[in-house]
Recover the amino acids of this structure.
């Protein structure tokens, strides 16, 4: 385990360096400038370039940026005067993590339940209906689901808050928008795993020993079918991370996703780069934790 952790922490650091490097140089080649105010004179722009260190050679800017990141400093926002990017991100990070975890938990738990129901009712009308629902959930992007939920539950039926963050009611619609694709993916995957498990020799042997269908399912099929689902957590976390940016914007949630979206048209490069790095780090940590959990849940898995 220690060898595995050291190896993957090293891989994580190298990957993070690649992300930092790519994000830095991509920002340099993006068209336009963050100084969009027509009232700014050349002298004022020169002063601002000096303030942000943009008057230095590119290689020096890059090394300075790397050094600052190692000390937890993502620079200063171009649009929020004298605001540290690190502070801007970490003020909003908790909101995004809360939203993502809530969506992930709701999606996985509901998907496991519905997937099990679908597997136990294989090839009947209920299974067909649930398969259609899960297919729709996979096919429709999260932001479209969010807009539909907002339209019906917010505007037409006035059942839940339209936007904002702070109460449980305000978390329901955005969490559902992100959870539905997760639910659909888990449902389909768990259904197929359950069906395959129920047809294995050891399950047939358990039935031959006189165990009831419920006992076989609860004692053997659920656990063995659930372990492969853990492999989906990393990709699903990635989907939630990418989807949350638009969802936060749609529901006016003060998370880093909303901040990322609003920083793009204003060309607030430090915020864009800082948010990209934090997103990448969160994703890599999620995948690492998933691998460790899988190895603990299934001793047959060897980390290497």
């Amino acid at each position: 385990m220690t060898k595995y952790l050291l190896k993957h922490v090293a891989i994580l650091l190298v990957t993070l360096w690649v992300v930092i490097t790519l994000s830095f140089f991509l920002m340099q080649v993006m068209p336009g400038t963050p100084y969009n105010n027509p009232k700014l004179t050349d002298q004022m722009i020169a002063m601002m370039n000096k303030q942000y260190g943009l008057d230095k050679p590119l290689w020096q800017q890059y090394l300075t940026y790397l050094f600052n990141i190692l000390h937890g400093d993502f620079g200063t926002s171009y649009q929020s005067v004298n605001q540290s990017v690190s502070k801007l991100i970490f003020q909003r990070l908790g909101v995004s993590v809360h939203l993502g975890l809530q969506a992930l938990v709701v999606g996985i738990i509901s998907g496991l339940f519905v997937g099990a129901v679908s597997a136990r009712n294989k090839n009947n009308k209920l299974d067909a209906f649930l398969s259609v629902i899960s297919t729709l959930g996979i096919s429709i992007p999260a932001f479209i689901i969010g807009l539909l939920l907002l339209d019906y539950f917010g505007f037409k039926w006035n059942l839940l808050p339209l936007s904002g963050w702070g109460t449980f009611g305000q978390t329901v619609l955005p969490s559902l928008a992100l959870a539905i694709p997760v639910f659909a993916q888990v449902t389909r995957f768990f259904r197929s795993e359950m069906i395959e498990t129920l047809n294995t020799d050891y399950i047939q042997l358990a039935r031959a020993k006189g165990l009831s269908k419920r006992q076989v399912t609860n004692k053997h099929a659920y656990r063995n079918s659930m372990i492969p689902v853990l492999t989906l957590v990393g990709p699903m976390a990635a989907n939630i991370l990418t989807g949350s940016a638009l969802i936060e914007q749609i529901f006016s949630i003060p998370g880093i996703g909303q901040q990322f979206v609003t920083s793009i048209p204003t060309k607030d490069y430090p915020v864009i780069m800082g948010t990209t790095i934090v997103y990448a780090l969160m994703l890599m940590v999620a995948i690492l934790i998933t691998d460790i959990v899988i190895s603990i849940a299934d001793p047959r898995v060897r980390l290497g």
In short: The two ends are 8 Å apart (CA to CA). The chain has two domains: 1-85, 87-268+279-301. The chain has twelve helices and no strands.
